[in-house]
Task: structure prediction
Amino acid sequence: MTNTKLKQAHGSAELNAVTTNPIKTTKYNDVNLKEWKNYPEIKTDTLWLFPTRLKTGGHSNEYHGNYIPQIAQQLLQRYTKKGDVVLDLFFGSGTSGIEALNEGRRCIGVELKQDLVDSVSQKFTPKELVTEMNLICGDSASDEIIDKIQARLEVMGEEKAQLLILHPPYDDIIKFSDKKEDLSNCATTEEFYDLFEKVALNGYKLLEKGRFAALIIGDSYKNSEVQSLGFECMDRMKKLGFKHKSTIIKDIQGNERAKGRKAPLWRYRALMGGFSIFQHEYIFIFQKV
Result:
């Protein structure tokens, strides 16, 4: 057989191999479903246990109230592709952005406090802040933020974001600033819900159809009863048009270990007051249909 015929035969064999065993992925992640057993690190259950907070890969624990990086890892691997844009409307200390870059994604983060934006900017290189990471100081509940985010999306070559992450304050448990726009400063829990809904609506408008959103939130205890922040915020998002896909329970031992939640005094208070000590928070997954 001539070299030409050998090359033609080899090329035909390669084409047949590709045709008979193509990579099969969804429109929203890079998981090869032909090899679905080879992704043991991706969680598909509704109970997430993380005994410690990840402190490598650019992450630190200097900011009180941020969510743990392992959540971002799971969300990015499950609901995004390489190069996708993640939109975080409660950016805080930058967990979403740091992990987005670690995973080969891009990010737009909106944070209310300018000093925090300036501080978090130091975690990224000047090049990353131009090409992959966009930080905006602004009010995520405002009408004006839509135009600012769309301008950043246009620079990044996108019309919409491919993943929405919402990690709001848990009502007034932690006061993050003195700003009236801050959800942690709402006069009532009902006002908190209304303001959160405005943020979620903006996120809905900026999210690509068919893509996913994640709400990370816990409940609070006020006036001798539980305030079901998670389920009320979940309902608000469903009313906006989000389709509810999953309710995940995550233990907070990695979050709370340094805050004294396991101290005997809390057990005494629980026994005296008839309540239970929170050991979990929620991750609600939604899809824009």
Observations:
- Residues 51 and 64 are 18 Å apart (CA to CA).
- Strands lie at 47-48, 85-88, 106-111, 133-137, 161-166, 207-217, 220-222, 225-227, 242-251, 280-288.
